[in-house]
Each structure stands twice: as structure tokens, then as C-alpha cells.
TrEMBL record, chain A:
It comes from Mesorhizobium retamae. It is found in: Cell membrane. CDD domains: TM_PBP2. This is ABC transporter permease. It comes from the Bacteria. The chain crosses the membrane at residues 101-124, 131-157, 177-197, 235-261, 281-307. InterPro entries: BPD_transp_1_N, MetI-like, MetI-like_sf, TAT_signal. Residues 1-25 form the signal peptide. Belongs to the binding-protein-dependent transport system permease family. The keyword Phosphoprotein does not apply.
Automatic annotation (TrEMBL), chain B:
Keywords: Cell membrane, Membrane, Transmembrane, Transmembrane helix, Transport. It comes from the Bacteria. It is found in: Cell membrane. It holds the Pfam family BPD_transp_1. The lineage of its organism: Bacteria, Pseudomonadati, Pseudomonadota, Alphaproteobacteria, Hyphomicrobiales. This is ABC transporter permease. Gene3D superfamilies: MetI-like (1.10.3720.10). Belongs to the binding-protein-dependent transport system permease family. The keyword Isomerase does not apply. The chain crosses the membrane at residues 20-42, 81-103, 123-152, 204-225, 245-269. It is a multi-pass membrane protein. Residues 79-269 form the ABC transmembrane type-1 domain.
TrEMBL record, chain C:
One of its GO terms (molecular function) is ATP binding. Keywords: ATP-binding, Nucleotide-binding, Transport. NCBIfam families: PRK10419.1. InterPro entries: AAA+_ATPase, ABC_transp_ATP-bind, ABC_transporter-like_ATP-bd, ABC_transporter-like_CS, Oligopep_ABC_C, P-loop_NTPase. SUPFAM superfamilies: P-loop containing nucleoside triphosphate hydrolases. It is a peripheral membrane protein. PANTHER family: D,D-DIPEPTIDE TRANSPORT ATP-BINDING PROTEIN DDPF-RELATED (PTHR43776:SF7), TRANSPORT ATP-BINDING PROTEIN (PTHR43776). It holds the Pfam family oligo_HPY. It is found in: Cell inner membrane. This is ABC transporter ATP-binding protein. Residues 8-257, 282-531 form the ABC transporter domain. PROSITE patterns: ABC_TRANSPORTER_1, ABC_TRANSPORTER_2. It comes from Mesorhizobium retamae. It comes from the Bacteria.
Length: 315, 284, 552
């Protein structure tokens, strides 16, 4: 088992390395002439020359990659091209905001969706299950920015219960912060609850179709004892791993939701820096979001391994 | 009396009327037809200014957009772009991914191991991030968007095709064909493919839906289809300012178009996926 | 006269099938179980045996429903019990032992907790007392070191132990009746005998009656006091074990009885090979094979070999049987010969010529000379191809036959294996398991091979059907002179068809000799054990066979 976990760790490190190559290549190699790409139509020979100097573009890509990677590892993320501000300092508060929203959504979503999943699996094809399965198809299909806009149009524009945009987080008053973040949180909630419930239900139903469940029934165990004691422990692995994957989504896929609510998070920072062609910021935000995604993926994999029934064959 | 006999059985007698998939199929067909025949269905060109900005429905079916262009016309032409990217990228990514994944499942050995490695590493990259990086690196033209989306879909298709292929390739009739000396393509084409059409079809639908949402999201961020053209996501972006004057239609119409199409696709997929290969085999 | 413990009256059950809707699978079945009895339900698979057995626990599987009848336990109809009453009844009054213990034991609960759980949940004892009782039960079922075993998980024990654990679990609440669903079928022959004996003793010790569901007349004859023969969901014969075995009245029972193969007398078997010794059609030289070859992508210790230097020859026209228990490597050997699995070391030779270890690199001439037929009738044929397409493919592939020639030849081949030619346009799902295996044989014959590898291809078939196919294989061999590599765990069938036998254990050939020698006096100790474990259809065989084991 330990062997398997080291294997996963190794893969995560490898993925991280690959990520850095992809991020670097996508920002500094793919566009061809980087300086031209950044300046676009404003390019004059002088400006191009000074930008090339600033970015060190006269060196070979491999050389630049390793010095960039070295800087990244030591915490030197460079300076923003647009504002000249230190990238690390720019990113820190944005990261905190993104994590705050993700944590808020996760704390509500995870218990709720696991519970709903168990209930749906306990009464398969009964009314509650059918209602949820139809509802979840709808929620899963609608992109999160559309969900966000719908919520805004109802709760912010029509009812005026919650603010439509979150420009600055009100850290000093936690309670009003919860209200402030309500709409972005609900938007994220919709996307991950539907997915997690479906997967929890499927994982548990899969286990509940095993012969040992029939055996437990024929031993005279009650319905809930069968589900909670005989079924759930064998489904924990897949459920935990789905939850971790969704948390990974919460920190890496939120750009759209952040843009809808003008939320000062990492995702919006990246989108903005892409439109301004602010290379160091793009690289840093992309790397940090990938890092978090990879960590949650790793947690998902490790949970799946750890919760495999003891001694059951693992590959 | 039967009710006293309790079971925790998982599969009931199956869903009854496939009403929902029928609705889904109809909606998908209407959207596709609407996109194809868009030029015949609209009275105003999508780029023409026909009225004041955000004019309510009346002279035009859905009113006008931020610049006073016919919203209905833009919606239909937007469908063309959205569907072109979605179906185009999925078809490319799907064809390559299936071939790769199935070949890996059938050949096994180092090729399979290598595939597993590559797929695992690429899937560790958040897809939205990959899309953003690719379009930020290369100017977002239609061809590049299609190519980038195909590349993002590819590893997922490889993984699924490999898993589906593995289920079948260990079955005994496939072994018999292999022992007969049949080549890779003959085994894939004759023995494996006919038995996995259903799950593959479901996967294709899933990927088209995913691509639709993805391109809509990119365009919504302003990084997909570029103005003056607009797909559905781009239309939502263009008309966001309508919400400030309390007019929801210009935003909700394209937003709902995305949602309705995706819901319809998922209803169809759910129905296709219901009888998977495994069940087919065990019912034999 | 004593009152019956269980009375089943006019029981009718329907099953749902997507094509046909609700269809009766159990018709109007009535029988009694008296205290102290072991009633066997015997019949072919799909005959409704398990379905009937489960109604004794008030349970009908999902996809089936009760269509009529009563099941009385101590005079009360359990089918009208409330849910809660039923829950308290199950496990406490009637308990179930499932066919596959490895699947029916929960992998995430310790053995001890799985057994004591029932006692506590039925409110019979405190947790501490239940634990003590659990250890007693494990001891009673002759399991080693109960305190240690109770703390382990099911998958950490052997198949035979798992089956005993499940029997202990079923006895935990002191039920009056056990429903035993083929409890020894999934086990190896040598283990089967011992588990059967343990169950028999436990039933006596705990004073429980039983319904014993089985397809194996020989096994049933060792444990049952009464036998009910089922066919297509109806009872066709019922009577005391001795009467049913010795004086079967129904034709189906007689067929079942005749299909039980007895080990032959040694003197009836050929002592020397009758086939002329010529150049072998297929030879295997010192083959070693392993699964999961490590590569640069998959590190870790090199997995152990499944085959440790196996060598054997197959001569033209002979039947070489390869016998051994599961895990002995016999199927891997078949795969190596067929070119489906690469040997790590050693060679495979066809007519003296070394051939590639992979089928795709062999010449057509050499591919066509060896064909393989597998175990499972469900997987034997591509569900999307008609019979004509399945058999036609080798004809086109090896001989390049035209469509009309193929059709003619397909019909000839079908006739050869006893299938009407109009089956050519059928799909596999329209045929029975036996018919599908016949088609698979025809497909192999289409290549006009000199050797056919039969990998356990009878094990999933009902005894009567299997017996018919053995007869077919014999007549084909006589007609066509094809050699067979007959891989099987069933010694009685092997004795009927084979010229020579290779006995495999732990990846080695421990004995390779003419059939008469193997079944005669000179034999390897393991062979002797295998032979002794073949159930015989006579009362008292179990005890005498086991005393034989004790003697060695």
C-alpha cells in the first residue's frame, strides 16, 4: 500500500514538472515572438528591444525555463509587467480570497451532498431519488456562469437579498462576509453538489449490489445498518476521492464564477492578466492553480487507496 | 403480499416511458437544424443594426442587443459557431482518442503503460487552465479554438476508450480472434468496436456537451470567439450591461440556449448509457 | 408423527425479462422439511433451485416476484410477515449459506464481528457473550486459531476457510433450518470434500435441518436425507436419497444420474498409449511464464512464475489431458501454446519447428494447426456476430473462401457438431450455453486444425449437456483424427476421454503418463489425492474417502 502511495506521489511530482513545462511553453515558446505578442499593435522597434531586454529573451528557451523555474521554487515570481508590483505580493490576497470562497462552498456542499447521495442510494428509483436525478441533470448541464447570472437576476436584481458583486471582502465582520459571499458560494454549490451526489449514489449503489449485502439482509440486519455498516465503509474510497476532486475544481476552475461576481480571486486575476498579456502574472497564477489542483488530485488518489477494503486486491 | 418481501435491490424494473430522452432528442435536433439553416430563418443579418440598443421584442422576435442588432438572428448564428466548435473539436479529439485508447487496451505492454502515464500526467492539469493558456498563447481563431479543445478532450477520451476496451478485450471471443492470428485493426474493428458502440456513443455525447460548456465559458471570459462574431457565451458577455438597466432577456436568452442544449444532450446520453455493454453481456 | 419445520405450498415465482416481461420460473412447488432432515434441491442451473431455497427466508431477489403460494415455518406463513418480523426471523430461525463465500463476506468487517453481529443485532446476547460464542463456533467448524482468525478480514483467509466462516456465521443465532446454496461448488476438489464433511458434522452438532441446493448428484448423495429433483421450475421427482439414486423413476433423474461420471476401473484403461509415436504436433519445452512483466513503467519485485519449466508433447490424434486445481497454471499453459501469452523462457514447437511466442507473428499455416476453445459459453461468441459470421471468419481468414463457399461449409460444420443448419443466422443470445459451445467447436474445426486446445470448456455447462459434448468430442476425434489438449479439473471426464494425462500442481507437471498408469497403482501423491477427492455417488463415500486421507 505504501508502495502505491509513493507511486502516486511520484506521479504528482512528475505532473508538477510537466505542468511547469506546459505553462512555460504556452506563455513563452508557443507565441513565437513574445515581445511582439505582448505589445501587439503598439510595438515599436525601441519598445520591442527594451521589452526583450527586460524579459531576457535573448537567452535560449531552455536557459530561460530553468532560471524561471529556479525563481519560482525560491519564491521569486518576478514583477508584473503592467503594474511593476511584486507578483508574490499581488497573488497572496487573491489566493486567500479564492480559498475562502472554496472553503465556504466546501463546508456547506460536502456534508450536504454525501448525505443526499446516501439517501438517494437508500431509496433507489423511489420518488426522492428520481426527483434528484432529474434535477441534477439540469444543474450539471447548465454552465456555472449561467447559474451565477440566474442567481444574480433573482436574488440580487429582483429580490435584492444579496449583493450582485463582491469587490472587496469584508474580513472584519465574519457574519456579513457569509452574506456577502452567498451568491458565489451558491453558484459553486450547485455545480459540485449535483456531481458529488450522483457519484456518491453510484458508488454506494455499486456496493449495495454486492452479494455480501444480500447476505447481510438474509442475516436479519436492518436497512440502515446494512447501508451504514455493511455498505458505506466499502464505498468510502470512491466517495472521498470524488469529494477531493471537486475541491480541486473549487480552487482551480472558479475563474468563470469569479468573473461573474467581479470577485477578487486568483481566477479573475489570471483572466485579467491574460487580457493584459502580463506574462509573469499568467505564469504564477497558472502554476499556483495547477499546484492546488494536483494536490487535491493526489489527495483523491491517496484516499481511494487508503480506504480500499483491507487486503482487497489493489492495482 | 409481495410488498412484505423486502429487498435492498439496486435495479428496479427500469424506467418506463423514455419521454425525457425524446424531448432531449427533439431539442437537440431543432438546435442543430436551426444552426444549419440559420440564413433561411432570419430576416436580419446578425451584424445589421436594426433598432435602438436593447429594444424589447416586437419588430424582432427577441428584441435587440447592446448595439441594436437582431438578437434572434445573433442567437441562431451564435449556435452555428458554438456547435461548430463543439462538434468539430469533439469529433477530432474523439476519433484520435478512441484509436489511441483502444489500441492501448488491445496491445497492452509498454505502449499501454506509456499511455497510462501520459494520460495521468496530462489529466493532472486543470482543463480550464489548459484552455486559457492555449488560447492566450495563440490568437483565438476558430481553427485554434477547435484544435485546442480537441487537445483538451483527447486524454479524457483516451482514458475512457482504454477502460471500455479493456473490459471487452479480455473476453474469450476476442482471445479466440487473437489466437487465430487476426491483426490489431481486425480485432478492434470486428470484435471490439461493435460491442462498445453504445458506451462510446454516450461518451461522444458527453464530450460534445462538455465542449459546448467549455467554449461558452471561454467566450464568456472574452478569450474564445472574438467580436464582431459571437457564439452563445460571447453573446452573454456582450449583453451583460443589459442587467444594469433591468432587461434580462438579452443575457438570459443566450445563457438559456447553452443550458437547454446541454440539458437536452444529457437527457439523451442518460438514455443511451442506461444499457451498457456489461449488462448486455450478463443478460445473454 | 412430528410436525414439519417448513412447509412450502404451491409456490409460484415469476421473473422479469426485458424481452418477455414477467415469466414463471417456479411452478406450483410444494414440499416439507422435517426436523433433522437435509433436503436436497437438485437440478440444472436456471432451474429455480436457489429461488426456492431463498423463499424459506422470506426473500425473493430483485427482478423476481411471488405469484402465489405459501411458505409456513412452524405453521406460520413467513411471506405475510411484517418487515421487522421478517428481519428478526432471518438469521435467527432460518439462515443462509451462499455459494461464494469470498463474495458473500464483507471485506471491510473482521470475521469475528461479522459472526457476532447477528447475535447482538437479534438481541440474543451481550457483545461480550457473542464474542465468546463466536470463538466456539469457529472452533466447532475446525478452523485454526479462532482468537486470531476472528480479528482478520475474510480476504486474508483461504477459500475453504471462508466457506467454513460463513457456515459458522449462519449457525451463530442457533437457527432451526439452514439454506445451503451450493456451498462447495466454488472450491477445489480436495477442499470440497473436507468442507462438505465439516458442514455435515456441524448440522448434526447444532441440531439444524437444511435445504441443500446443488447441481451435483454425487455431492448431494453424501449429505442429503431426501432429494427433490427440479426441472424448469417444477419438481419432477422426490424421494429418499437412496431411492432416488438407485431407483430413479423420472427420465430426467435417470439422465442426471447417467451423466455423473464414475472413475473407471483401472483394468479398463489403456496402460500404454495406443497412438503410434511419431513427430509431436505440438511440443512445449521448459516453459516458464509469469504475469505482469515488469517494465520501465512498472517497477517493483519481479512477480513469481506461474509456470516453472513445463515440458510436454502432444502427438497427432491423441487426447492429452492437463489436470490440476485452480492456480496450478494449466490455463496459462494453454495461453502460451495458443500464442496469447508470452513465455518468459522456453519454447513452443509446432511439428518440430520453434514458433513465435505471439500469435500475431506466427504464419497462417501454423496458426491454423492449433485452435482453442474457452470455458465460458457466455463469452465464447461475439454477441454482435451471427453463427455464420463467427464460423465463416476462420474460413475467410485461413482459406480465403468466397461467401457462397463459406455458407456451404458453415452448414457442414454445424451438422458435424449437431446443430441444425438454420442456426447459421442466429445470434448467440438466441442459443443455449451448450449450443454456443458447439458453435465454438465448429469455429475451431473450421480451421481444420491438427490440435484443439479445450480450456475447461465444459465446466460452465450442466452435467447432462457436458456429457453430450464429451461424446461429440470423442466422435469428432475418431472421425477427423484431431488431437486435443483437454484442460480440466474434472478427473472423471478426463478418464473418459484422455489417452494421456499431465497432472499439474503449482506450475509444474508432477506426473505425465498414460491414463491407465495415472489411475493405476503407480502415481504421484498429489495425483492420488486428486483422484480420491472425486465424489462418488454412493452413500458413505465421503467418510471412507476422508479416512483414506487420514491414513496417508
Amino acid at each position: 500500500m505504501l508502495n502505491l502511495i509513493t507511486r502516486r506521489l511520484f506521479f504528482a511530482l512528475l505532473a508538477l514538472f510537466a505542468t511547469s513545462v506546459i505553462v512555460f511553453a504556452a506563455t513563452e515558446v508557443l507565441p513565437g515572438d513574445v515581445a511582439q505578442a505582448i505589445l501587439g499593435q503598439e510595438a515599436t522597434p525601441e519598445l520591442l528591444k527594451s521589452l526583450r531586454q527586460e524579459l531576457g529573451l535573448n537567452r535560449s528557451p531552455v536557459e530561460r525555463y530553468f532560471s524561471w523555474l529556479g525563481g519560482f521554487v525560491t519564491g521569486d515570481l518576478g514583477h508584473s509587467l503592467a503594474s511593476k508590483a511584486d507578483v508574490l505580493q499581488t497573488i497572496k490576497p487573491r489566493l486567500a480570497n479564492t480559498l475562502a470562497l472554496a472553503a465556504y462552498a466546501a463546508i456547506v456542499a460536502v456534508p450536504l451532498s454525501v448525505l443526499l447521495g446516501i439517501i438517494c442510494a437508500a431509496y433507489p428509483n423511489r420518488l426522492i431519488d428520481r426527483i434528484f436525478s432529474v434535477v441534477s441533470v439540469f444543474i450539471v448541464s447548465i454552465p456555472e456562469f449561467v447559474v451565477g447570472l440566474l442567481l444574480v437576476s433573482v436574488f440580487a436584481v429582483q429580490l435584492r437579498w444579496f449583493p450582485a458583486v463582491v469587490v472587496r471582502l469584508n474580513w472584519s465582520e465574519p457574519l456579513s462576509l457569509l452574506v456577502q459571499l452567498m451568491l458565489p458560494m451558491l453558484t459553486l454549490l450547485c455545480t459540485i453538489v449535483a456531481h458529488t451526489v450522483r457519484m456518491t449514489r453510484a458508488a454506494l449503489l455499486d456496493v449495495l449490489s454486492m452479494p455480501y449485502i444480500e447476505m447481510a439482509l438474509l442475516k436479519g440486519m436492518s436497512r440502515w445498518r446494512i447501508i451504514l455498516r455493511h455498505g458505506l465503509p466499502n464505498a468510502i474510497g470512491p466517495i472521498a476521492s470524488v469529494v477531493a476532486l471537486n475541491l480541486g475544481y473549487l480552487v482551480s476552475g472558479v475563474a468563470l464564477v469569479e468573473v461573474v461576481f467581479a470577485y477578487p480571486g486568483l481566477g479573475r486575476l489570471m483572466v485579467d492578466s491574460i487580457s493584459y498579456r502580463d506574462l509573469p502574472l499568467i505564469q504564477a497564477t497558472a502554476m499556483i492553480m495547477c499546484l492546488m489542483f494536483i494536490i487535491f488530485n493526489l489527495i483523491a488518489d491517496i484516499l481511494a487507496v487508503l480506504f480500499k477494503p483491507r487486503g482487497a486486491s489493489v492495482r | 403480499m409481495t410488498s412484505s418481501i423486502q429487498s435492498t435491490g439496486t435495479h428496479g424494473a427500469g424506467r418506463n416511458v423514455p419521454l425525457l430522452p425524446a424531448i432531449g432528442l427533439t431539442v437537440v435536433a431543432l438546435v442543430v437544424l436551426g444552426a444549419i439553416f440559420a440564413p433561411l430563418l432570419v430576416s436580419n443579418q446578425p451584424a445589421d443594426l436594426v433598432d435602438s440598443a436593447y429594444a424589447p421584442p416586437g419588430s424582432t422576435l427577441l428584441g435587440t442587443d447592446v448595439l441594436g442588432r437582431d438578437l434572434f438572428s445573433r442567437l441562431l448564428f451564435g449556435a452555428r459557431l458554438t456547435l461548430l466548435v463543439a462538434f468539430g473539436s469533439t469529433t477530432i479529439g474523439f476519433a484520435l482518442g478512441c484509436l489511441w485508447g483502444l489500441a492501448a487496451a488491445e496491445l497492452g505492454g509498454w505502449f499501454d503503460d506509456l499511455t497510462d502515464w501520459i494520460v495521468n500526467i496530462v489529466l493532472a492539469f486543470p482543463p480550464l487552465m489548459l484552455g486559457l493558456l492555449l488560447v492566450s498563447a495563440l490568437a483565438p481563431s476558430l481553427a485554434i479554438l477547435i484544435g485546442a479543445l480537441a487537445a483538451i478532450q483527447l486524454p479524457r477520451v483516451v482514458r475512457v476508450a482504454r477502460a471500455i476496451g479493456q473490459n471487452v478485450s479480455s473476453l474469450q471471443f476476442v482471445e479466440v480472434a487473437r489466437a487465430r492470428g487476426e491483426g490489431l485493426f481486425s480485432v478492434l474493428y470486428r470484435e471490439i468496436l461493435p460491442n462498445i458502440l453504445r458506451p462510446l456513443a454516450a461518451e461522444y455525447g458527453l464530450r460534445v456537451t462538455y465542449a459546448t460548456l467549455f467554449i461558452s465559458g471561454l467566450s464568456f471570459l472574452g478569450l474564445g470567439i472574438q467580436p464582431p462574431d459571437a457564439d452563445w457565451g460571447g453573446l452573454v458577455r456582450e449583453n451583460m450591461s443589459a442587467m444594469q438597466i433591468g432587461s434580462m432577456l438579452p443575457v438570459l436568452a443566450p445563457a438559456c440556449a447553452i443550458g437547454v442544449f446541454a440539458v437536452a444532450m444529457n437527457l439523451v446520453i442518460d438514455w443511451i448509457d442506461e444499457s451498457t455493454f456489461e449488462r448486455q453481456m450478463s443478460n445473454d | 408423527m412430528t410436525k414439519p419445520l417448513l412447509e412450502v405450498r404451491r409456490l409460484t415465482i415469476e421473473a422479469f425479462q426485458p424481452e418477455t416481461g414477467w415469466r414463471k420460473v417456479v411452478h406450483d412447488v410444494s414440499f416439507d422439511v422435517f426436523p433433522g432432515e437435509v433436503v436436497a434441491l437438485i437440478g440444472e442451473s436456471g432451474g429455480g433451485k436457489t429461488t426456492i431455497g431463498l423463499t424459506a427466508l422470506g426473500y425473493v431477489r430483485p427482478g423476481m416476484r411471488l405469484a402465489g403460494g405459501k411458505v409456513l415455518f412452524n405453521g406460520e406463513n413467513i411471506l405475510s410477515f411484517s418487515q421487522e418480523r421478517l428481519r428478526l426471523f432471518r438469521g435467527a430461525s432460518v439462515a443462509y449459506v451462499a455459494q461464494s463465500a469470498s463474495a458473500a463476506l464483507n471485506p471491510s468487517i473482521t470475521i469475528g464481528n461479522q459472526i457476532s453481529e447477528g447475535i447482538v443485532q437479534h438481541g440474543l446476547m451481550s457483545a461480550a457473550d457473542a464474542k465468546r460464542r463466536t470463538l466456539e463456533l469457529l472452533k466447532a467448524l475446525s478452523l485454526p486459531d479462532p482468537p486470531h482468525l476472528a480479528m482478520r478480514y475474510p480476504q486474508e483467509t483461504s477459500g475453504g476457510q471462508q466457506q467454513r466462516v460463513m457456515t459458522a456465521m449462519s449457525l451463530s443465532c442457533g437457527p432451526r433450518l439452514l439454506v445451503l446454496d451450493e456451498p462447495t461448488t466454488a472450491l477445489d476438489v480436495t477442499t470440497q470434500m473436507q468442507v462438505l464433511k465439516t458442514i455435515k458434522d456441524a448440522l448434526k452438532e447444532f441440531d439444524a435441518s437444511a435445504i441443500y441446493v446443488s447441481h451435483d448428484l454425487a455431492v448431494v448423495s453424501q449429505i442429503a436425507t431426501r432429494i427433490l429433483v427440479l426441472r424448469n421450475g417444477r419438481i419432477v421427482e422426490a424421494g429418499d436419497t437412496f431411492d432416488v439414486l438407485e431407483r430413479p423413476s423420472h427420465e430426467y433423474t435417470r439422465a442426471l444420474r447417467a451423466a455423473v461420471r464414475k472413475l473407471p476401473h483401472v483394468e479398463d484403461l489403456p496402460q500404454q498409449r495406443t497412438v503410434a509415436r511419431s513427430e509431436p504436433s505440438v511440443s512445449v519445452k521448459n516453459v516458464r511464464a509469469t504475469y505482469d512483466n515488469p517494465s520501465i513503467f512498472r517497477r517493483g519485485p519481479a512477480p513469481a512464475d506461474v509456470l516453472h519449466g513445463v515440458s510436454l508433447d502432444v502427438y497427432p490424434g491423441e487426447v492429452l489431458a492437463v489436470v490440476g486445481e485452480s492456480g496450478s497454471g494449466k490455463s496459462t499453459l494453454a495461453r502460451v501454446i495458443a500464442g496469447l501469452h508470452s513465455a518468459r523462457e522456453g519454447k513452443v514447437l509446432f511439428r518440430g519447428q520453434a514458433v513465435s511466442s505471439r500469435a500475431s507473428r506466427r504464419s497462417k499455416e501454423c496458426l491454423k494447426s492449433v485452435q482453442i476453445v474457452f470455458q465460458s459459453p457466455e463469452q465464447a461468441l461475439n454477441p454482435r456476430a451471427t453463427v455464420a459470421q463467427a464460423i465463416g471468419r476462420p474460413l475467410a481468414f485461413y482459406f480465403g473462401m468466397s461467401r457462397s463457399d463459406r455458407r456451404r461449409r458453415v452448414e457442414e460444420l454445424l451438422e458435424m457438431v449437431g446443430i441444425p443448419p438454420e442456426y447459421a443466422d442466429k445470434y448467440p443470445k438466441e442459443m443455449s450455453g451448450g449450443e454456443r459451445q458447439r458453435v465454438a467447436i465448429a469455429r475451431a474445426l473450421a480451421a481444420e486444425p491438427s490440435v484443439i486446445i479445450c480450456d475447461e470448456f465444459l465446466s460452465a455447462l450442466d452435467t447432462i449437456v457436458a456429457a453430450q459434448i464429451v461424446d461429440l468430442m470423442k466422435s469428432l476425434r475418431d472421425r477427423l483424427g484431431t488431437a486435443y489438449i483437454f484442460i480440466s479439473h474434472d478427473l472423471a471426464t478426463v478418464a473418459d476421454i484422455a489417452d494421456r494425462v499431465a497432472v499439474m500442481q503449482h506450475g509444474r507437471v508432477v506426473e505425465l503418463a498414460a491414463i491407465g498408469e495415472v489411475f493405476g497403482a503407480r502415481r504421484h501423491q498429489y495425483t492420488a489425492e486428486l483422484i480420491r477427492s472425486v465424489p462418488e455417488m454412493r452413500l458413505g463415500w465421503l467418510e471412507s474417502a476422508l479416512s483414506g486421507v487420514a491414513g496417508t
